Amino acid sequence: MCPRRSCFTEMQHKYLPIWLCLDYLCDILYIMDIIANFHTGFLQEGILVTDKRLIASYYSRSSTFCWDLLSILPTDFLYFKFGLHTPSVRVNRFLRSHRLFESFDRTETRISYPNVFRISKLMAYIFVVIHWNSCIYFALSSYVGFGKDVWVYPNISDPDFGRLGRQYLYSFYFSTLILTTVGDIPPPMQEEEYIFMVVDFLIAVLGFATIMGSISSVVTNLNSADKSFYPNYDQVKLYMKMYKVNKSVKKKVIAWHQHLQINKKLTNENQILQNLPEKLRVEVAVSVHLPTLSKVQIFQHCEKGLLEELVLKLKPQVYSPGEYVCKKGDIGREMYIIKDGKLAVVADDGITQFAVLGEGMYFGEISIINIKGNTSGNRRTANIKSIGYSDLFCLSKEDLKDVLTEYPDAKAMLEEKGREILLKMNKLDENLAAELVAKQQEVDNKVRRLEVNLESLQTKLARLLAELESNAVKMCQRIKCLEWEISLWEEEGSKEELHDGQ
Fold first, then answer.
1. Beta bridge partners of 356
2. pLDDT tens digits, 448-482
3. Which UniProt keywords apply (predicted)?
4. Cα–Cα distance between 405 and 243 in angstroms, integer?
5. Whole-structure pTM value
6. Sequence-ordered strand ranges (E) for 255-375
7. In angstroms, what CA-CA distances link 95 with 87, 355, 385, 389?
8. Sequence-ordered list of residues with C-beta below 8 angstroms from that of 175, at least 6 positions apart, any chain
9. SS3 365
């Protein structure tokens, strides 16, 4: 408002008490901001510093403090020289603008819709530039003379153009025409007008390039975000077109992709979170999926660390209407947890329904745990088909096995719960289980005996190596002694030959 009050002098004269109150309210806020900065901690090598003396020393030695201090210098005393109707004496308050940009940066990283905020920020910049330019246009018109030619603002003696609101709106409109290069602008007449137009056209060219670049950047970010969240459907369409896939399959693919887009379903969560540190990735995955995993009966009362590792192994899958999740007799290599949608347990004809599974239910959990005595083995015992679109979490047998190697107690507990479930289903042969346990114990005993024998052989081998090393050292020393004695004999022989020759 400071440029507007300086250029549209009627606004300054008419509302002077209001402007003075707002000015000094802003000054109070600026001073409070400086006081707050003396109590705001800072990060030093990743550690939050909260000591007030260190905070005060850090802030007072920073360039930010210099700008903040300059922005509250009492330039208002110049009112005594130039009068109360010269708000330009407070121009040093603009030095606090770095706080605005800092606020923008922090807001952009914290809100859920950063691209919308970027567009809003860009529109605000455009508005401010046009606003300042309209103020300069009106001031230039006042300097040249209102109504002197067709380019400047019309004569304010005209009642229609003498109103304050009309003055600002006309100037804003004229400035918008120039900076947007729309055209339909009266030609300039004076040298000052030519200079103003040239500068404005240069600003307009730069602004147009900046706006187009910013908007294209936002659109690119949106497209890249969509590509990172959802599969590239254009490639799928091109593939189906090249290989002339029939229309029924095309319709299924289109409907599946639309379901993902409309309902914001993700199929590659692990790839999206892969750039996060492991600790943060675990926390995000736990907050999203742990309640669902905790509903599975065999995982209830398990250690929290085990559940956190299992959460990272969950793979989301989406099934289309009428698609089979598993069929009777298939080898079970994974279990499923229903996140959303409904599944039907159907007969072999695919029509007769025995039961309907809804959100939070699970199946296939027994197939991923090797329970001895399971009469069905790892084969599926039912046909399960998706009624509509169903979102499931899949946990593979290999992933569970990798996690359980570090949690033997949890493994034993899971096997015990699995046996209880099989007993209720009358699918556990206890005799076969006892026989397999006996065989396993026998194998374990053999392995232990082999380990004992291996340790004994390793001990003997170590002794032989030590003796061999000792003999080698002794042999080396003996050879050195013999070489030394031979060299002495050769020296004595050469001396005797020299003596005989003389």
1. 344
2. 889 888 888 998 898 998 889 888 888 988 888 88
3. Coiled coil, Ion channel, Ion transport, Ligand-gated ion channel, Membrane, Transmembrane, Transmembrane helix, Transport
4. 46
5. 0.54
6. 315-319, 324-326, 334-340, 343-346, 353-357, 362-363
7. 15, 71, 67, 57
8. 130, 131, 133, 134, 137, 200
9. coil
HSE, CB side, 13 Å, CA atoms: give it for residue 6.
18
Give burial (CB, 10 Å; 0-12/13-18/19+) of 269: middle
The DSSP annotation for 79-147 comes to HHHH-TT-GGGGGGGGGGHHHHHHHHHHHHHHSS-HHHHHHHHHHHHHHHHHHHHHHHHHHHHHHH-TT
In the numeric block, the tokens 């920020």 are attached to 121
**Nearest to 355, CA basis, from 343, 363, 364, 366:** 343
* Tens digit of each residue's pLDDT (9 = 90 or more) over 30-65: 999 999 999 888 877 667 888 889 988 988 888 889
Contacts of 441 (CB under 8 A, 6+ apart): none
Q: Dihedral, CA atoms, 303, 305, 308, 314, nearest 10 degrees?
A: -70
The distance in angstroms from the start CA to the end CA of the chain is 122
CA distance 136 to 142: 10
